[in-house]
């Protein structure tokens, strides 16, 4: 028998709760470190994956290049990241999280990490391997699946009057009536 979407409601709800929980922690850490949550996403990528190009950071975080440029400028100015010439491509740069920032964020996440480790310790090695594989599969799915519904551009266009959005031609009468 093929499972129905209702069979997965508990998992989906738990994932929603997990996302909300991580948002709460992220907000707290961001506030304590005088950063914003998107800054933390960038720093998390650099900490987890090592030095990266702005393009690689944008791919991993989903942050637009323009927004990312502003974030990187601020993080570099504040001494949280260092920028280096990319030894493999002289046209690009690599960014790396500073050791001071790693120490600061490690300290801020320390209590949570210790609590998580205690939770993980109750699992067997095969259970941990299954969960790790499952989480990696979830991340892959999340990164390749676009959100449903209209894009922000589509939503903005739908909010405009028909004459402005371009979905209907503007008549000469409509233009004359505006005068």
Automatic annotation (TrEMBL):
It holds the Pfam family MarR. GO terms for biological process: response to stress. Residues 4-140 form the HTH marR-type domain. SUPFAM superfamilies: Winged helix' DNA-binding domain. GO terms for molecular function: DNA-binding transcription factor activity. Residues 143-179 are annotated as: Disordered. This is HTH marR-type domain-containing protein. It comes from Mycobacterium kiyosense.
């Amino acid at each position: 028998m093929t499972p129905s979407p209702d069979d997965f409601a508990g998992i989906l709800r738990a994932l929603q709760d997990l996302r909300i929980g991580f948002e709460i922690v992220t907000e707290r850490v961001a506030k304590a470190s005088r950063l914003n949550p998107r800054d933390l996403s960038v720093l998390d990528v650099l900490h987890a994956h090592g030095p990266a190009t702005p393009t690689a950071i944008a791919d991993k975080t989903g942050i637009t290049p323009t927004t990312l440029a502003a974030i990187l400028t601020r993080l570099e100015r504040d001494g949280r990241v260092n920028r280096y010439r990319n030894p493999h491509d002289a046209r690009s740069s690599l960014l790396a999280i500073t050791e001071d920032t790693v120490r600061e964020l490690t300290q801020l996440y320390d209590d949570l990490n210790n609590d998580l480790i205690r939770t993980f310790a109750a699992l067997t090695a095969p259970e941990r391997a299954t969960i790790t594989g499952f989480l990696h599969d979830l991340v892959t799915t999340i990164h390749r699946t676009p959100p449903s519904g209209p894009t922000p551009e589509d939503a903005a266009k739908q909010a405009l009057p028909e004459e402005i959005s371009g979905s209907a031609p503007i008549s000469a009468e409509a233009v004359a009536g505006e005068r």
